């Protein structure tokens, strides 16, 4: 009898518990905080981001990317473009100074005025730079081989890119006393087309193109006189850097020159010729860059 009573009590208790859980419903699973899972990493959905610090503006004749790097306020109305490496491995220090400029802007963003953004294209001719230095990334002067580097001046099509722009363009061009190819037509080369497209899309307030080696700052002009803003850029860069200022480049005839084409398009542009082919001369050019950015910001 005693055992029967115990069995009845157990049944009553079990029935009560069953009725309680029936009314309450099934238990909800415990919330899992991303990163707290045992035995595996977090399974959160990544947030989409847009990299607006660099743009691939084109591809070289040899299939290498031509990259533009952007600094400063993205919504600024004025843009200053710096271009290096147009003559690739023949003038590798023009890419070196451009990479130095990029490093400086990354570390000292305050040098850029609030109304100006800066774009740096360190290697316009990656084919020529790769041919001589073996890389298109940042490198040191010790990586530049000695000896004749003439072949590095041209792109993979054998064209001198600074003879491929639409100011006095000629297929049979001259560099110093040497015959060079200006391409089959103005902008026949993908590197020149990349610059043409970028300028058309952005209309820069100023363009600075690095060359070597004469040690000076040269204004641009395509038969219509030197723009007032170009004169201002030339004076600002030369005075700050210590390079001599020149209104024209008259060492020898140039056809299809990039900065002269920019002048034809109404874009203020200067050529900064480094004094050698191996030294970036960064200390001088740093002050020149700062002066140009200040000039554009105020004018």
Summed up:
By secondary structure, the protein is an alpha/beta fold. The chain is built from seven helices and ten strands.
Folded structure, characterized:
The chain is an alpha/beta fold and 299 residues long. The chain has a single domain (54-298), classed as Aminopeptidase, CATH 3.40.630.10. Helices cover 32% and strands 18% of the residues. The protein has an 8-stranded mixed β-sheet, with helices on both faces. It has a two-stranded antiparallel sheet with strand order 5-6. Helix 5 links the parallel strand 8 and strand 9. Helix 2 packs across helix 7 (282-298) and helix 5 (228-241) runs antiparallel to helix 7. The chain starts with a helix and ends with a helix. The relative contact order is 0.15.
State the share of residues found in helices, binned by percent. Answer: 25-40%
**Stretches where pLDDT falls below 50 for ≥5 residues?**
1-50
CATH fold name: Aminopeptidase
| CATH first level | Alpha Beta
Terminal Cα span:
108 Å
Q: Mean of the pLDDT scores?
A: 87
H/E topology pattern: HEEEHEHEEHEEHEHEH
Individual helix count: 7
Q: How many DSSP-defined strands? A: 10
What is the CATH homology-level superfamily? Zn peptidases
CATH architecture: 3-Layer(aba) Sandwich
Secondary structure blueprint with pairings:
Layout (H helix, E strand, L loop, with lengths): L1 H23 L29 E6 L5 E7 L6 E6 L9 H15 L8 E6 L4 H8 L38 E4 L2 E4 L8 H13 L3 E7 L3 E4 L8 H14 L2 E3 L11 H7 L4 E6 L7 H17 L1
Parallel strand pairs: 3-4, 3-7, 7-10, 8-9
Antiparallel strand pairs: 1-2, 2-4, 5-6, 8-10
Helix pairs in contact: 2-7, 5-7
């Amino acid at each position: 009898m005693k055992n029967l009573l115990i069995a009845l009590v157990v049944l009553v208790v079990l029935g009560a518990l069953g009725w309680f859980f029936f009314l309450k419903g099934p238990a909800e699973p415990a919330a899992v905080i991303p990163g707290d899972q045992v035995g595996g990493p977090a399974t959160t959905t990544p947030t989409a981001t847009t990299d607006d610090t660099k743009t691939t503006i084109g591809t070289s004749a040899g299939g290498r990317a031509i990259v533009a790097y952007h600094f400063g306020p993205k919504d600024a109305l004025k843009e200053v473009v710096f271009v290096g490496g147009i003559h690739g491995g023949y003038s590798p220090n023009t890419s070196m100074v451009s990479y130095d400029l990029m490093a400086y802007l990354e570390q000292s963003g305050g040098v850029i005025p609030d109304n100006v953004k800066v774009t740096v294209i360190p290697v316009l001719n990656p084919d020529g730079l790769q041919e001589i230095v073996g890389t298109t990334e940042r490198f040191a002067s010790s990586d530049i081989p000695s000896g004749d580097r003439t072949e590095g001046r041209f792109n993979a099509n054998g064209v001198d890119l600074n003879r491929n722009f639409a100011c006095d363009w000629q297929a049979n061009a001259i560099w110093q006393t040497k015959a060079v190819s200006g391409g089959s037509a103005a902008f026949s080369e993908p590197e020149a087309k990349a610059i043409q497209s970028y300028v058309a899309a952005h209309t820069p307030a100023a363009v600075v193109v690095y060359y070597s080696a004469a040690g000076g700052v040269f204004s641009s002009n395509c038969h219509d006189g030197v723009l007032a803003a170009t004169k201002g850029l030339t004076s600002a860069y030369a005075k700050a850097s210590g390079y001599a200022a020149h209104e024209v480049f008259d060492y020898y005839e140039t056809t299809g020159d990039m900065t002269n084409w920019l002048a034809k398009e109404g874009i203020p542009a200067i050529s900064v010729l480094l004094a050698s082919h191996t030294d970036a001369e960064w200390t001088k050019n740093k002050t020149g860059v700062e002066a140009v950015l200040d000039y554009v910001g105020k004018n």
